[in-house]
Structure formats: C-alpha cells, structure tokens
C-alpha cells in the first residue's frame, strides 16, 4: 500500500530503495471509518495526511453554524488544516471521512527530520506547495469570474473521478449552491 | 537596495556574506514606471519578481473584458503569474505598475541554479509557497463565508499599509464590488 506513496513521490524526485525506506519510516498508517474525524475544529492538528484509500472532506463551519466544504481529498492527495499544522495552532476546519479511509500520517517534527535526512524531499514538498498555491489561486479566479455552471463544468473536467464519487449534496456545498440548483446544472 | 532581499530571506534562513553574494548574483534589477506592464496576458512569463519599491496589481480579464484584481504586491512581496512561470506557459493574467516600481527579477532557470548552489534557499522558497497557499485558502474560505464588509475589514486588519495606499477603485475591483458600495463600507 505504501507503494502508492513511492510512486507519488517519484513523479517528482527519484528515490533509491534505501531512501524510500527512510522516507517511509517517518509515516504512520492509520485507518478511519466513514463519518470519523481526522481533524476537529478547535483541537490541535498533529498530522499532514497522505490518502492511500478513501475520501475526505475539509469543512469550515461559519458563525451561523453553516458548513462550507473547502476541499476534498482522495487517493494520492495530501490534506490537513495546513495553517494549523504549520503554525501549530488550533484547527479552524474539520477533516472528516466521506468513505472508509486509509492514510499515512506525518507530524511536523518528522516532516522536518525527513527533509534533513533526505534533502531532495524538500524539492518534492516545494513542488506540491507551488501547485497547491496555483490551484488555490485558479479557484479564487474561477469564483470571481465564473458562474456556478461554469465552475461545475471545470470541476468535472479537472477531477472527473471525484465528481463521480462525491455525494451530490457535498458537491453542492462545495460549489456554494443548493442541492436543487446543482441538479439543474448536472448534465 | 538589495539589502531588502537579504533581510527578507534571513527572516527564514540565515545567509553568510558569501552566500548572499551568490544568491544576489542570480537576480537582475529592473525599474518600471506607473502603468507599465511587467507581464502581459498571452505572452511568456520570464520572471518571478521580488518587489523592492512600488506597488503592482495582478489582473485577470474575463471573456466579457471585465478586469478582476487577483492580488496586489508591494515592498517585500513576490509576484508573478505563477502558473505560467512554473509551467513555462503563456500568461493568463497581467502584472501592471500602480506606482513607479523597482523589482529584482529571477528566471526559472536561475531559480533552479540558485537552489542547487545554495540548497537552503529551497527551504526559504518552500516556506513562502506554504504561506502563499495558506493565504489563498483563507481567501477562498473568506469569499465563501464573509460579507464584503467583513472581507474589507479583514483586509484592513491584515494589510493596513496596502489599504491606505491602493486607490479605492482598485480595492473595489479586488473585493468584487462597485466603487460606490466600497464607499459605504469604508469607516
């Protein structure tokens, strides 16, 4: 199962068997059931998660108790409340299983040790961070300039497997529209 | 003037005089007048820019020719059309001077050479990329959950110097409201 991590990393930096053994030693596997929380708002965020199997939703709850879906994560994706993780502050979001999920967990301390032990892993994380930033900026632009129908079409083009798999009510919460509005947009 | 770059980098990684001389050798200084373009939509993006002096706006123009301000950059900030820069594709945004501006320019090739020459610079760029990503994610959440007045107040709290300095018409375009609506929100 950890092979998925190796394939994922080697898309950016090649690793010898010895190097991957070192990388792998910093991660702890965990399993969660559907509806379980990996991160709860208001609590400490111990890990950055690499998803081996399953589906997660990252949720922000506003002052009026309304839930907004900030993002999803499935196989081969990283997810956390990154601000809370990197600044070691309390979570402002929750991370919850939409399906039974298996993850590899990395603490901030082990992340730093890993980068010291295998410096080229810093290049890997740098590239992931850049493309995370670019995707977030594209989403900001899309929110500023596109209709809900256009944003739905973009999501379908970029992540067809995700759209297939995520319950329609959650897709609606991600796009910021009602379930009924989304039904009218679906092809 | 390049001292600003050294102070900026040393907030994250310390540099010896020799190391900073190497870092500095990869940057080219350039000066632009108000209204000049550093990046034009549809053209190649040669540089990532570190702002020494002045004020820039990053603009996305939609299919109906409406301009949306994606971000601003002033002293001590980095700016580019990052997607176009890192993927060496054509710009989908423009970067234009709001004031006379002085920048240090870094090509993608020199960025890679710099990271190879001084590997700890990778840590510096990694931290900038993380916090860029976190800021973009916070902005997505803010757009999902906050009123224009709340977003204006947040901007004022986070970047008071920027709000003072940016013409009100541009602030309105950044917040996605009319100049009149913004006037009603200003304290």
Helix content of chain A: 40-55%
The pair of chains with the biggest contact is: A-B, 31 and 31 residues
Number of helices of chain A: 9
Contiguous uncertain segments of 5+ residues of chain A: none
Protein name (chains A, B): Crp/Fnr family transcriptional regulator
Domain Cyclic nucleotide-binding (chains A, B): 15-114
InterPro entries (chains A, B): cNMP-bd_dom (IPR000595), cNMP-bd_dom_sf (IPR018490), RmlC-like_jellyroll (IPR014710)
Organism (chains A, B): Chryseobacterium paridis
Describe this structure in words.
Chain A is α+β, with helices and mostly antiparallel strands and 187 residues long. Chain A has a domain at 3-118: Jelly Rolls, CATH 2.60.120.10. The first copy, chain A, has helices at 3-10, 17-25, 82-87, 108-117, 120-145, 148-158, 160-165, 168-175, 179-185; strands at 28-32, 37-39, 48-53, 55-61, 67-74, 78-79, 94-97, 101-106. The first copy, chain A, is globular and about 55 Å long. In chain A, helix 8 (168-175) packs across helix 9 (179-185). At the A-B interface, helix 3 and helix 5 of A face helix 3 and helix 5 of B. Chains A, B: Residues 15-114 form the Cyclic nucleotide-binding domain. Chains A, B: This is Crp/Fnr family transcriptional regulator. Chains A, B: InterPro entries: cNMP-bd_dom (IPR000595), cNMP-bd_dom_sf (IPR018490), RmlC-like_jellyroll (IPR014710).
């Amino acid at each position: 199962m950890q092979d998925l991590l190796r394939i994922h990393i080697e898309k950016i930096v090649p690793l010898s068997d010895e190097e991957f053994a070192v990388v792998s030693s910093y991660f702890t596997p965990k399993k969660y059931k559907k509806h379980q929380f990996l991160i709860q708002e208001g609590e400490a965020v111990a890990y950055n998660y690499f998803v081996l199997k399953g589906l997660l939703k990252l949720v922000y709850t506003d002052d009026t108790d309304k839930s907004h879906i900030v993002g999803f994560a499935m196989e081969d994706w990283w997810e956390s409340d990154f601000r809370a993780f990197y600044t070691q502050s309390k979570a402002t979001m929750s991370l919850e299983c939409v399906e039974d999920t298996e993850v590899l967990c990395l603490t901030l301390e082990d992340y730093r040790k890993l980068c010291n032990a295998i410096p080229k892993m810093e290049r890997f994380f740098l590239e992931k961070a850049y493309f995370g930033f670019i995707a977030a900026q594209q989403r900001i632009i899309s929110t500023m300039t596109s209709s809900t129908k256009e944003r739905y079409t973009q999501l379908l083009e970029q992540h067809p497997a995700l759209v297939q798999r995520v319950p329609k009510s959650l897709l609606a919460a991600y796009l910021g529209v009602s379930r009924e509005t989304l039904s009218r947009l679906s092809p």
